[in-house]
């Protein structure tokens, strides 16, 4: 594994929520994190067929544009009763019809409507998982991947105003509250030497930290 020197990374994301989470996760390691959104760089077209392919598309574009080591995150909600949807199209499900941006209240309603259409009313039929794939990419195109998953149940109506995206309808396994009801610290529940964490992103990050930051 290559070393990341100096301790600077560009996050290949325009998502402010992801930037906050990555900065919190990287804080123990003393890294300086900026994002392509903060730098005003455009978003590349994500036309891959997997989380890994889309993560690489974002990371390599950021690395080439900045000359820095780039870290990307491609993540999504995969619902078993919906054959894994929305999956890599998780953000697309939030797109407003008029093209004016994303509305995750709308996206959560779409998931609920799709589950209802499948007759998935009981908790046993509403299983799913969040998946996050981190891609660390150098300007020469070399890349490493780290995948994390958090399994749980889709609930309705949404609960909680914390987190972002689909967090208010996702209740992780072994818990009676949604990600939307958990503080950022509780949701991550990860620090060096403290296991794999709770969220999908924290679990992917734990693998990344062990391989690259330890």
Number of domains: 1
In helices, the fraction of residues equals: 25-40%
Biggest sheet: strands, sense, closure? 6 strands, mixed
**Mean pLDDT level:** 91
**Which class best fits the helix and strand makeup?**
alpha/beta
Count of helix runs: 6
Inertia-based shape: globular
Number of strand elements: 6
CATH architecture: Alpha-Beta Complex
Helix and strand element order: EHEHHEHEEEHH
Top CATH class: Alpha Beta
CATH fold naming: Maf protein
Distance N terminus to C terminus? Answer: 11 Å
State Rg. 17 Å
Widest sheet: strand order? 2-1-3-4-5-6
- The percent range for strand residues is 15-25%
Query: Which runs of at least 5 residues are low in confidence (pLDDT < 50)?
Result: none
């Amino acid at each position: 594994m290559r070393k990341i020197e100096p301790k600077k990374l560009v996050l290949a994301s325009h998502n402010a929520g992801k930037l906050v989470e990555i900065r919190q996760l990287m804080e123990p390691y003393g890294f300086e994190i900026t994002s392509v959104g903060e730098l005003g760089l455009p978003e590349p077209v994500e036309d891959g067929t997997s989380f890994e392919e889309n993560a690489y598309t974002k990371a390599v574009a950021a690395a080439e544009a900045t000359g820095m080591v780039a870290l990307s995150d491609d993540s999504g909600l995969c619902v078993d009763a919906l054959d894994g949807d929305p999956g890599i199209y998780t953000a697309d499900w939030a797109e407003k019809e008029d093209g004016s941006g994303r509305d995750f209240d709308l996206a959560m309603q779409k998931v609920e409507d799709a589950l209802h259409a499948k007759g998935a009313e009981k908790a046993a039929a509403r299983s799913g998982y969040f998946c996050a794939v981190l891609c660390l990419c150098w300007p020469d195109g070399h890349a490493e991947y780290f995948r994390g998953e958090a399994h749980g149940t889709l609930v309705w109506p949404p609960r909680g105003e914390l987190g972002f995206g689909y967090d208010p309808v996702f209740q992780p396994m072994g818990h009676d509250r949604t990600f939307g009801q958990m503080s950022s610290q509780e949701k991550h529940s990860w620090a060096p030497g403290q296991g794999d964490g709770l969220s999908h992103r924290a679990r992917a990050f734990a693998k990344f930290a062990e391989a690259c930051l330890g």
